[in-house]
Amino acid sequence: MSGQRIPIARPSLLGNEKKYVMDAVESGWISSIGPYIDRFERDFASYHGVKHAIATHNGTIALHLALSAAGIHEGDEVIVPDLTFIATSNSVRYCKAHPLLTDVDPDDWNMGPEQIIHAITSSTKAIIPVHLYGNPSMMNEIMLIAREYGLLVVEDCAEATGALLGSKKIGTFGHVGCYSFFGNKIMTTGEGGMCITNDDELAEKMRILRDHGMNRKKKYWYDHLGFNYRMTNMQAAVGVAQLEQLDSLLASRDAILRHYKEKLSSHNGIMFQETHGNRSVNWLVTVRLKGMGFESRDAVINELNRDNIDTRPVFYPIHFMPMYSDPSYVNGNNENTVTIAREGISLPTYIGLEEEKIDYIAACLIKAFEKYSV
Ligand SMILES: Cc1ncc(COP(=O)(O)O)c(C=O)c1O
Fold this sequence. Notes:
A 7-stranded mixed β-sheet has the order 1-9-8-5-4-2-3, with helices on both faces. Strands 10-11-13-12 form a 4-stranded antiparallel β-sheet.
């Protein structure tokens, strides 16, 4: 098959994106004030049933904004999973606080209540549960722990827009939920992010810090050391159009995952994330190839590359990175994280990926896995 390369991800921009962006351009409102920003924030808050949504320029700074507004600072410890995109723990470092990289569950690949409870120390001030690859973390149990210990909870929903735990949307369990709208995400604004909350004070503080710390009633008067973390009206125009289609985007992504599962889950040694019956969303179809090492997994990636299939390794454990090599960042040996990172591979996932391409990818994956497994 396939002389044409199959990409890992591709945005789907088939709704009102172009119309709304043109409208923003023609109106002259191309910077960080404009009707699409207000509308995107209002619509996103309403989709999640929360009081406030604060749009940001990307998901990384959404996390930093939430932590900063909540007063996380030097000396504070923040529990984050070792298995996540680097931005989760970097956002803690930007506050000069100390991320404690904690292991994840081997089945759902998320940091769970058991791992968190063992990580808490007298310096712990916050937890950042990540809904990895769209799979909800066990937020009910995590919130019980947070209440008992008086901890802030910032949910990293970057990969999981629209996921549900029971009938409640993720991002609405913790004090703040943070989202990413990067081009490969469930919905996109090119670059973009959002913080949602029901807390009036946190919302007000995030709005102020997003805008250089400027007093909301007195122009060019700054009460806080703030940032320029604003979203533009053009980004928000794309966001409004994407949100209009979110439920159908999620349904199309579900169908892709179902087809991958039909083709792969009966294969001995290929494992998917466990969802505990929650409504996970399918960001990137990601599987574990049981028994693979970093080298053999990379050999599979190279083989698929030769088959014209673009894939990604699962995130490396954050504690492998030179900036996190100090043992004080690690809570235990984090062996589940290391195993999943070693065995994990993400497969092409985008709206419009045809079933016959999935059949081809699955066949190539099985062939490469069998070739390189020992
Ligand atoms: C888990 C996680 N957190 C945070 C981010 C950061 O989002 P952004 O790329 O929009 O800055 C990402 C995005 O890649 C992510 O996957």
